[in-house]
Amino acid sequence: MARARAVLRSVLPFLVGLPILLGVQALSPPDYTLILVNVGVNVILAVSLNVVNGFTGQFSLGHAGFMAVGAYTAAKITLAFSGVQLAFVPEAVSDQLVFALALAASMVTAAAAGFLVGMPSLRLRGDYLAIVTLGFGEIIRSVIENMKFLGQATGLSGLPPYTNIAWVGVSAIATVVMARRLAVSTQGRALFAIREDEVAAEAMGVDTTGYKVRAFVISSAYAGLAGGLIAHAILLTTPRMFTFVRSIEVVVMVVLGGLGSITGSVVAAVVLTVALEGLREFQQYRMVAYAAGLIVLMLLRPQGIFGTRELWDLAPFRRLPRPRPFGGRASTGPEGASPTAVRDDSTHGGRP
Amino acid sequence: MTEFLQHLVNGLSLGTIYALIALGYTMVYGVLKLINFAHGDVYMVGAFAGYYLGSVTGTDRAPGMVGAALVTLGAMAVCGALGYVIERFAYRPLRNRARLTALITAIGVSFLLEYGFQLSPIVRTPVEFPPGPSPRFFPALLELGEPLTFLGVTVPRIDLLGLVVALVLMIGLQLIVYRTRFGMAMRAASFDPQVAGLMGIPVNRIISWTFVLGSALAAAAGIINASSRPKIEPLFGLMSGLKAFVAAVLGGIGSVPGAMVGGLVLGLTEEYVAGYTSSQYRDAIAFTVLILVLLVRPEGLFGRATVEKV
């Protein structure tokens, strides 16, 4: 019985979410599909980056790099299989299987890249980590630009159009479910402990480096997935798609939604993607507005729109008792901690 | 041998620029513990200020020593003011908040300058402002004549002059930091802002002046660089800024001599690695250096290791 409930709990988000998404697609004009795909991809990116930046409190600026790793892996695989039909299955199914394989591979390679980057750099803190991850993102891009195998600056084109709303929807919901279940798990508690006070967490026996690396690897894997999806939606990968600016866009979504709030990331990703799409004719002013918005947001509400709270925490009538902002079982975790306390590094002497 | 020496000259010329920008990073980081992401863009603004001032004063048509000095000082003043404004309105309100907030704001300011300068011109005559995304040609502010040739190595005179100006500025800064009351206040504010405030040091004013000084140095770097490599565009500060930050970390962030040495070492490393292997990897070299430094000696060449206090 408990097992059946657990299975149902895992499947339920997909059963509810997918029909809604397909409904949205059916209702919107056909040329909006690419926007919907973009929204989904950005949701994946924002929620996965939130695992590192929001849950763990480590500031990463290299998300686009992992996205690039995923995109190129998936592109290489689908290009290698293009024109090849797997035996015993019809063409359409064969294509989908190839795409599934490509996406899985893109998650694996991006996770591997995340591990390689995370191992050395997660020993660093704050600003240094931000710069190093930014540097790694640029190194990844620079390597891609110089590899003949990956098409150098022109990139890979002519990818098969495999990405559709169902793939994006399943991936986005899977990312959200992953983040949510991570947040209410023991692992998640360790991550929040690291966010609140790394030194204290270490003193309480939390393997801080280990947890940080794990969070980083998970986050990169999903970034790779997003890369694979977007590559097969616009049928092209170029190094220019994965610059530092792309990473910043994702950071803005996470910060706007609230560092640590999953639903905040989702809402911010949807709103920003749609808003930027609407502002496309003001191309020039778009980035200026973006930058100004970022500064104003930081000045007025640095914790983001939702803070660390989730959407349902804002409802006026919610179940009492809910002692912790991340919900879950109240009996787990140390008592007397104050998870809502905003961490202020300046009181620690401001070391890196 | 000739090639080796030529790379040495080019590397020193590049390193001087990095060192000058790195000084700004190091000063701001020393006092505020903030990576001023927008510093590279202030450097870009400095080059553009020189471009506009040059065409307003007519120095670009009639190059001369006085004109060049005026343009450089003018650009330094403009950037100093810009540095003040950035500090006053973007960073000061966040002084006592989480450091992440300030970092994100700094990224915002950086983007605002970069994309603001890429807008299509609003002021049309006599000089277009903002300059728009297309690269501009920076006019020669000085008539210096043919480059020197020495053992088969070409040494552009402007690079020599740039090196001299940069050294003078750095020595001046070193004197300010270690020989004046302002410098002492700066070091005190860096050591402990709260106690410095209690001792009667106007911490806010000191921080403002630190920004002004650092931004003025960035403007000088912008003009020296643009005189030697005369293509300027709104995005060219981004990479130089990041590399200068690497130089500051390499030398030990917070240390003035460290920033100079770090800048020169980084410039030479980049020039030699790019020269003898593939120049395609130019941008990646600096970050590789950064990662190696942080792994092996995180406090940098001249820095002192700090112990984590709980």
Automatic annotation (TrEMBL), chain A:
Protein's cellular compartments: Cell membrane
TM spans (from-to): 7-26, 32-52, 64-84, 96-116, 215-238, 250-276, 288-306
Bilayer disposition of the protein: Multi-pass membrane protein
Keywords assigned by UniProt, alphabetized: Cell membrane, Membrane, Transmembrane, Transmembrane helix
Biased amino acid composition, Basic and acidic residues: 342-352
Source domain of life: Bacteria
Region entry Disordered, spans: 323-352
Signal peptide limits: none
Name the UniProt record assigns to this protein: Amino acid/amide ABC transporter membrane protein 2, HAAT family
Organism: Anaeromyxobacter dehalogenans (strain 2CP-C)
UniProtKB/TrEMBL annotation, chain B:
CDD domains in alphabetical order: TM_PBP1_LivH_like
Main location: membrane
Residues passing through the membrane, by range: 12-35, 65-86, 98-117, 160-178, 206-224, 245-268
Pfam family, one: BPD_transp_2
MF (Gene Ontology): L-isoleucine transmembrane transporter activity; L-leucine transmembrane transporter activity; L-phenylalanine transmembrane transporter activity; L-valine transmembrane transporter activity
GO biological process terms on file: D-alanine transmembrane transport; L-alanine transport; L-isoleucine import across plasma membrane
Subcellular location(s) per record: Cell membrane
InterPro entries (UniProt xref): ABC_transp_permease, BCAA_transport_permease
Gene Ontology CC: one annotated term: plasma membrane
Keywords: Amino-acid transport, Cell inner membrane, Cell membrane, Membrane, Transmembrane, Transmembrane helix, Transport
Record's bilayer topology term: Multi-pass membrane protein
Lineage: superkingdom: Bacteria
Family statement drawn from the similarity comment of this UniProt entry: Belongs to the binding-protein-dependent transport system permease family. LivHM subfamily.
Name of this protein: Amino acid/amide ABC transporter membrane protein 1, HAAT family
Native source species: Anaeromyxobacter dehalogenans (strain 2CP-C)
